[in-house]
Amino acid sequence: MLNTVKIYTVFCITCCLFGCATSLPHTSSSADKNADQKVVNYAKQLIGTPYRYGGKTPQSGFDCSGFVAHVYQKAGITLSGNATDMATQGKTISQSALRPGDLVFFNTSQRPISHVGIYVGDGQFIHAPSTGSAIRISNMRNTYFARHFVMARTYFNNNTDITVSQR
After folding, report:
1. Residues 30-57: what's their mean pLDDT?
2. How confident is the model at residue 52 (pLDDT cuts 50, 70, 90)?
3. Helices and strands in the chain: count of H runs, count of E runs
């Protein structure tokens, strides 16, 4: 048992030293303090961009995770993978703790996590919904989204530090 504890301790220390979680440097610059607002403002500029499965750019169109990754990248935050992968990054928060720029996750296709969007405030989120549609703002209180909501995650701590966890 003691060896297991020692191995676990060494593993934890190694992960911390070699970047299991990466943080953008904390500075007093307004860029860090406003990263959450940058996410929302840029996301709104993309309203009307067509949905395209696997899409990752404004020119080709976006799927939900491509949209979120692209918007966060513009704010200096790297997210990777699909909605399921993104749901393992950042910090889980309650729906009542949502702030603009946080991510909201839904089960829309019989999988635990199959859709992601960016919370913009006032119970609304922006997302790339589905084939044949375009990026738009939807209400989380809408019966469909309220019933399919799974979780929320944040990448902002007091709106000044940004932390992105990696698996």
Report:
1. 88
2. very high
3. 6, 11
What phi, psi does 121 have (nearest 5°)?
110, 165
Rounded distance, CA 152 to CA 92, Å?
A: 6
Residue pointed to by tokens 């007093």: 28
Catalytic residue among 15, 16, 20, 115: 115
* pTM of the shown model: 0.76
Q: Is the pLDDT of residue 146 over 50?
A: yes
End-to-end CA, the chain: 26
Alpha-carbon distance of 72 to 126, in angstroms, equals 13
Listing DSSP states for 59-121 in one string gives TTEE-HHHHHHHHHHHTT----SSHHHHTTSSEEE-GGG--TT-EEEE--SSSSS-EEEEEEE
Is 115 one of the annotated active-site residues of the chain? yes
Q: Out of 12, 15, 20, 127, which one is annotated catalytic? A: 127
**Rounded-to-integer distance, Cα 67 and Cα 127, Å:** 7
134 secondary structure, DSSP code: B
Q: Which one from 20, 26, 64, 70 is the annotated catalytic residue?
A: 64
Task: Give the contacts of 144 (CB within 8 A, at least 6 positions apart).
Answer: none
Separation between Cα atoms, residue 31 and residue 34, nearest integer Å: 5
